[in-house]
Amino acid sequence: MTLNWTVVLLTSLVPMLVGFIYYNPKVVGNAWMRASGMTLEKAKSANMIKVFGFSLLFSIMLASMIPSVVIHQFHFPSFLMNQPGFNQEGSEVNVFMKDTLAKYGKEFRTFKHGALHGFLMSLFVALPLIGIGSLYEMKGAKYNLITWGYWAISLTLMGGIICQFA
Predict the structure, then answer these.
(1) CB-based burial label for 116 (10 Å; 0-12, 13-18, 19+)
(2) What average pLDDT does the segment 65-88 reach?
(3) How far is CA 83 from CA 98, 99, 101, in A?
(4) Residues of the chain with pLDDT > 90: what percent?
(5) Is the CB of residue 124 less than 8 Å from the CB of residue 69?
(6) What pLDDT score does 145 carry?
(7) Which residues contact 84 (CB under 8 A, 6 or more apart)?
(8) What's the N-to-C CA distance of the chain in angstroms?
(9) Could you tell me if residue 90 is left (phi over 0), alpha (psi between -120 and 50 degrees) or otherwise beta?
(10) What b/e readout covers 91-108, taking b as 16+ CB neighbours within 10 angstroms?
(11) Which end of the chain is more exposed for a tag (fewer CB within 10 A), N or C?
(12) Mean pLDDT, rounded, for 122-130
């Protein structure tokens, strides 16, 4: 099974694009600034090359991991990899794996399916991470919901795009 890395890399731009819209003052930017304790002065003093550079790096890392969550077929070969002949062309296990992937390799490869898994990632991975961190940072529920909303949108879109096109 091959993965379209161009789609994965392009999908890594989704969090940045969503962030430009979502954190706009006309959307939730002002509410987020109040909830997080951010000020315009502090925001203007940030090293934007560092912020956007690391944001892109982390987004690439995230987009590279998402296929293993939203594309079920990635896990199938792992069931067989310790079997004799796994990588031997024409062996029984190699033929079985290739035939199975040829027959079922496109199952559940839709935007809707990937979006569901992306949303579930936001709910069961991003929200707990945000929640735990915000407890120690003494941030309120509003901060949690705003931040999780951003990740819910970003991961839902990323999961959908990767599942459909990668």
Answers:
(1) middle
(2) 91
(3) 14, 16, 17
(4) 89
(5) no
(6) 97
(7) 91, 93
(8) 11
(9) left
(10) eebbeebeeeeeeeeeee
(11) N
(12) 98
pLDDT of 1 > 70? The answer is no
Could you give the count of Cα atoms lying within 13 Å of 54 in the half-sphere of its Cβ? 5
* Mean pLDDT, the chain, integer: 95
Residue 3 has pLDDT above 90, yes or no: no
**Identity at 113, one-letter amino acid code:** H
Residues, the chain: 166
Structure tokens given for 45: 């003093």
Report CA 107 to chain centroid distance, whole Å: 20
φ, ψ dihedrals at 163, nearest 5° = -65, -40
Read off the tokens for 74. 């990635």
How many CA atoms are closer than 13 Å to the CA of 7, on its beta-carbon side? 15
Return the residue matching tokens 């079985």.
96
